[in-house]
Specification:
Shape: globular
Order of helices and strands: EHEHEHEHEHHEHEEHEHEHEHEH
Strand order of the largest sheet: 8-7-6-9-10-11-12
Mean pLDDT: 97
Low-confidence stretches: none
Distance between the termini: 22 Å
CATH architecture of the largest domain: 3-Layer(aba) Sandwich
CATH class of the largest domain: Alpha Beta
Number of domains: 2
Number of strands: 12
CATH superfamily of the largest domain: NAD(P)-binding Rossmann-like Domain
Strand content: 5-15%
Helix content: 25-40%
Bound molecules: (2R)-2,3-dihydroxypropanoic acid
């Protein structure tokens, strides 16, 4: 290749990341952070050798088929890659990478915040304070559920799940998990393995979802499985909305068959999320900010750049997923 490879960056990245990218590549930046349509991306990448997108840009099979032949890589600024059809990319010979590890701490913090927020009714409390509706203190006022000593079920004991387990141990929570296979390394410690999702759900007080969205996990938390949770149970999701059947979760929250939910990710985000979540008092809601710390966003960018450097140096990138 003559000259520096051209990289189409679909969203505004941290300044330090854009500076580092410009040291080795010819970036096409999006300083206004406008959300591009697929057609705009396809037009903009006519002159590019690689794309550095976020999960907000979708590369389905039809889009990948239309990518110019010179596109060598999609180096995602995300750990989740459900927005990219990996099979289609592999077939076209486009390398796909993600940014694992570097966002596990930040995402685990948000999982803990959601657990606490949902258990202790933090959203309700905040709304009362902001609306100046606090009239009285009483022993019955805003009584929630205590996390300390409860059983935490981790659905998907991967990188983030392990950090959540470590943080939750600080609350004396007993850790339970489900993966396809039991893990035998140190990160899992004394956690109890459940061979089925159903068995996990029947044995926990808090469920925290950490499995990626895929054809296998779409709608995994459906009405039948939610019915296995007890009335005081709390559901937390920092992974992807697609893992949850929204109608079923909203119905369970409405009827009181579970106690509360803390959610950071949704089907149809940002503007078409299930309206039921907003209407309920027993939901604690955040706008997909699991990885949103300065440290983590820089680290995600550097990791995406390192993957691009490897690819254009003819090496295997560390985080290849297709
Ligand atoms: C991720 O990295 O997958 C986060 O959800 C942000 O895209």
């Amino acid at each position: 290749m003559t000259g520096r490879p051209v990289v189409l960056v679909t969203r505004k990245l941290p300044d330090a990341v854009e500076r580092r990218l410009a040291e080795q590549f010819e970036p096409i930046l999006n300083p206004d952070d406008r959300l591009y349509t697929t057609e705009e991306i396809l037009r903009a990448c006519e002159d590019a050798d690689a794309i550095l997108p976020c999960h907000t840009e979708h590369f389905d099979a039809a889009t990948i088929a239309r990518l110019p032949a010179r596109i060598r890589a999609i180096a995602n600024f995300s750990v989740g890659v459900d927005h990219v059809d990996l099979e289609a990319a592999a077939q076209k010979g486009v390398i796909v990478t993600n940014t694992p590890d570097v966002l596990s701490d930040a995402t685990a913090e948000i999982a803990m915040l959601l657990m606490l927020g949902a258990a202790r009714r933090a959203g309700e409390g905040e709304r009362i304070m902001r609306r100046q509706e606090w009239r009285d203190w009483s022993p019955a006022f805003m009584v929630g559920r205590q996390l300390t000593g409860k059983r935490l079920g981790i659905l998907g004991m991967g990188r983030v799940g392990r950090v959540v387990a470590a943080r939750a141990r600080g609350f004396d929570m007993a850790i339970h998990y489900h993966n396809r296979n039991p893990l035998d390394d140190d990160g899992v410690g004394d956690a109890t393995y459940h061979a089925s999702v159903e068995d996990l759900l029947s044995n926990v007080d808090v469920l925290s979802i950490h499995c990626p969205a895929s054809a296998q996990t779409r709608g995994l938390l459906d009405a039948e499985r939610i019915a296995l949770l007890h009335r005081d149970a709390i559901v937390v999701n920092t992974s992807r909305g697609a893992v949850v059947d929204d109608d079923a979760l909203v119905a369970a929250l409405e009827s009181g068959s579970i106690a509360a939910a803390g959610l950071d990710v949704y089907n149809g985000e940002p503007d078409r999320i299930h309206p039921g979540y907003r209407q309920l008092d027993n939901t604690f809601l955040l706008p997909h900010i699991g990885s949103a710390t300065r440290e983590t966003r820089d680290a995600m960018g550097y990791r995406a750049i390192a993957n691009l450097v490897a690819i254009f140096d003819g090496e295997e990138p560390r985080d290849r997923v297709a």
